[in-house]
Design brief:
The chain is of the alpha/beta class. The strands form 8 sheets. Strands 6-5-15-14-13-7 form a 6-stranded mixed sheet, covered by helices on one side. The chain has a 4-stranded antiparallel sheet with strand order 1-2-3-4. Strand 3 and strand 4 form a beta hairpin. It is globular, with a radius of gyration of 25 Å. Bound molecules: ligand MGD (2 copies).
Length: 734
């Protein structure tokens, strides 16, 4: 299918653009404009893709005199359709952040001191290539570990494979959605990917288990959620905290943290005992129903009430609401799911519930991806590692997905030298000291390295430990591999292309990877001269050309989102049985529970609260706290405490306290928010604050870091996912 070009780069006037960004209040907007912008010049609009978070909305960057003066949503983007959140609107704040990394930096002081000298790219890349050649000779290529995240990392990923290391791991697996992908794959034969294919706009009932949509903001997901609610969908929000979603809910179930599997089993019990499940769907598509029915017989709502503290009557009422609304029930699979170490089993329980409701592949439930053909490169064979992976994927963590890797597994290997020594790390677009729990262990592991390299855009805390820092150009200044999204009702390909030249001495990731490849004699793995040629090869089978994609930003294809869109022969599942596996033979084979079972979470010691955490709509992870506009909107986080806890602790709203975890680690001072909207056994922080890099002049020392308080993890034995809600805090004595 070839669509007509509806949007080319076009001229518009500043008068029509106005000042600042729609979702950012006027007071916060002026500083994001570059110096010298008068608001009266003519602008060119470049269609590209946002990277202020990982949803990758389509944007139009208005450029005048080589400067990006505004970012807005691209109305032609098939998914975001012109909508853009506060973070996306504030993208120029990253581009023009005065604290950006500006040149390559070579360490001059001790590790941790943060003393560097600026060097040119030749010197930086010659240094790195020399060290990598020596490393390979002395310790083998596997002694290099790569910690990537984000779209641009794919060029580096190719380089790492060509170099010969299988050791690569992203936090998006073991600190985010790994257990979910595995739990749903075990059940349906495929994971969910990103964006999650949840049919929120068509749902008659939405079930959110922890997913705090509204604070967790992905623009098109929020739009679909709001559309669904506006059309009359009911909402169940299971959350120990009165989240934004809970405030919209028909049923808020303030569950005792860590007991969700018990609730899910009781819901299954009611659906099956009362015959409310989708019998025809289960008969046609699923295997293992009788075993499931036997398994859940004892898990009554009364049993679950004693565990979850949710009244049995509410459990029955909500299960019946699901039975009534089926199959248009969107049980959101969650996204950050590494909570208590039993996370793959919780994901399994959610997947089984979805199957019982007949919602997988059905309107208003979870929809199906549609593949898009793409071109590939004629590359030499990648070297095979004789020593295998060091992160435990496929061995210690039998179900971990190798392409994504286990970050904490690589840190373990670096510390222990088991299965073999790891001597060097390259960290690209990952903020390890904020996104991997047990940061003290991470620092200890760095101490074991011969070489630590960070490729980033900002001077985040981890660069203090780097031998070499490489400044990447931001997403508004570079090409990246295209975003190919199959998990959309209309699958699409979107481009990231530069709106302006890279500032300072920063360089795009593709250039850095290719230049390094030349020095390592691995150029054959980069058989293209320009990123446009790279894009052209990938696009070849689609019928779209590079110029067309670059001018439009994204192109969509027809999708087949529901089972009914596909002939019966295409409705099978990629599991061993070809059916939805309610009972998992694959889990039984490795000695794991083939049907989910509730296991109690570790309880807080006396006087401590469980530390839970989440998002704020105007910040992404730990990456936006230095952004001028976003910092103006939310400069710091607060610790949520229940009114009765605040009374017991003798603290009042607005007061600053220091939190201390059960291992005695203290946070930086954080303001107290006193609220009825949280259980008495939890304290809540928004993730990403309390940063310790002084070079981030706006973010430094503002609020408390959840990660710094995560001295413990409960590791999921199936995937290696780090359950992070097993840390406990109290107010430190003055
Ligand atoms: P979770 O951490 O699973 O995050 O967002 P989600 O997947 O929604 O959920 C946090 C919620 O879980 C909180 O409301 C907390 O109170 C609740 N909770 C805590 N313990 C329990 C429990 O035991 N049971 C239950 N049922 N609930 C519990 C993360 C998602 O957000 C992710 S993974 C990404 S990549 C995006 N990041 C992001 C961002 O950085 N900023 C913004 N603005 N939006 C984002 N959206 C995405
Ligand atoms: P960020 O804080 O966004 O999180 O983990 P990360 O991706 O590590 O860090 C991104 C880093 O990339 C920052 O240093 C930023 O400056 C840099 N960066 C930004 N843009 C670019 C770019 O264009 N190029 C390069 N080279 N670098 C860039 C996210 C992960 O964290 C996820 S997905 C989840 S869901 C987990 N959430 C979570 C949590 O809620 N609490 C705690 N304590 N840990 C968590 N870990 C996980």
């Amino acid at each position: 299918m070839k669509e007509e070009i509806t949007r080319r780069r076009f001229l518009g006037t500043a008068a029509t653009l106005g000042a600042g960004a729609a979702a950012v209040p006027a007071a916060a907007s002026p500083p994001v404009h570059p110096p010298g912008w008068t608001g009266t010049a003519r602008v060119e609009k470049i269609a590209t893709t946002c990277e202020m978070c990982f949803w990758r909305c389509g944007i139009l960057a208005s450029v005048s005199g080589g400067k990006v003066v505004r970012v807005e949503g691209n109305p032609d983007h098939p998914q975001s359709q012109g909508r853009l959140c506060a973070r996306g609107n504030a993208g120029t704040g990253l581009l023009y952040d005065p604290d950006r990394l500006k040149t390559p930096l070579l360490r001059t002081g001790e590790r941790g001191e943060g003393r560097f000298k600026p060097v040119g790219w030749d010197e930086a890349l010659d240094f790195l290539a020399g060290r990598l050649v020596k490393l390979r000779e002395e310790h083998g290529p596997e002694s290099l570990a790569f910690f990537p995240h984000g779209n641009g990392a794919r060029f580096f990923a190719t380089l790492m494979r060509a170099y010969g290391t299988p050791n690569s791991a992203e936090p998006s697996f073991a600190q985010c959605r790994g257990p979910r992908e595995v739990g749903y794959s075990l059940t349906f034969g495929q994971g969910l990917g990103s964006p999650e294919p949840v049919d929120l706009e068509e749902a008659r009932l939405v079930v959110l288990i922890g997913s705090h949509l509204g604070e967790n903001v992905f623009t098109s997901q929020i739009t679909a959620f709001a559309t669904g609610l506006a059309r009359g969908a009911k909402l169940i929000a299971v959350d120990p905290r009165f989240s934004t979603a809970a405030s919209k809910a028909d049923w808020w179930l303030p569950i005792r943290p860590g007991t969700d599997i018990a609730l899910l089993l009781a819901w299954m019990n009611v659906l099956i005992v009362e015959g409310l499940h989708d019998k025809e769907y289960i008969n046609t598509y699923a295997a293992g129903f009788d075993r499931l029915a036997d398994h859940v017989r004892e898990f009554t709502p009364e049993w679950a009430e004693a565990i979850t503290e949710i009244p049995a009557g509410k459990i029955r009422e909500t299960a019946r609401a699901m039975g009534k609304a089926k199959p248009a029930v969107a049980v959101h699979p969650g996204r950050h799911v590494t909570w208590y170490g039993d996370d793959t089993q919780r994901a399994r329980a959610m997947a089984i519930l979805t199957a019982l409701l007949g919602s997988w592949g059905r309107k208003g439930g979870l929809f199906l991806p549609t593949p898009i053909a793409r071109g590939s490169f004629d590359l030499p064979d990648f070297p095979e590692s004789k020593r295998g992976r060091a992160d435990g994927a496929g061995t210690r963590f039998p179900l971990a997905v190798e392409e994504l890797g286990v970050t904490n597994g690589l840190i373990d290997a670096t510390l222990s030298g088991d299965p073999y020594p790891i001597k060097a790390w390259i960290v690209y677009g990952q903020n390890m000291l904020e996104s991997i729990p047990q940061p003290a262990r991470t620092v200890e592991a760095i101490g074991k390295l011969d070489l630590m390299v960070v490729v980033d855009v900002l001077p985040v805390d981890q660069i203090r430990y780097a031998d070499l820092v490489l400044p990447e150009a931001t997403y508004l200044e570079r090409y990246d591999p295209p975003t190919i999204v199959e998990s959309a009702k209309r699958p699409f390909i979107a481009v990231r292309s530069p709106a302006c030249e890279p500032l300072f001495e920063s360089k795009p990731g593709w250039w850095i990877a290719k230049e390094l490849a030349k020095r390592l004699k691995l150029e054959a793995f980069f058989p293209w001269e320009t990123p446009e040629q790279h894009l052209g090869t990938i696009l070849a089978p689609t019928g779209f050309g590079v110029r067309e994609l670059v001018s439009r930003g994204a192109v969509a294809f027809p999708g087949k989102p529901y089972l009914e869109d596909r002939p019966p022969g295409e409705r099978s599942f990629d599991t061993a049985s070809g059916k939805i596996e309610l009972y998992s033979e694959a889990l039984a084979k490795i000695g794991a529970d083939p049907l989910p079972r509730y296991t109690p979470p570790v309880e807080p010691p006396r006087g401590f609260l469980r530390l839970i955490y989440g998002r704020a709509p105007v910040h992404s992870f730990a990456r936006t706290q230095n952004n001028e506009a976003l910092s103006a909107l939310m400069p710091e986080n607060e610790v949520w405490l229940h009114v009765s806890v605040a009374r017991d602790w003798g603290v009042t709203g607005g007061q600053r306290i220091v939190l201390e975890n059960a291992e005695g680690v203290k946070s930086s001072p954080v303001r107290v928010k006193v609220t009825e909207g949280i259980r008495t056994d939890c304290a809540y922080l928004v993730h990403g604050f309390g940063q310790r890099s002084r070079a981030l002049r706006r973010a430094f020392g503002r609020g408390a870091s959840d990660n710094s308080l995560m001295s413990r993890v409960s590791v999921d034995p199936l995937t290696g996912g780090t359950g992070m809600r097993v840390n406990f805090v109290r107010a430190a004595k003055a």
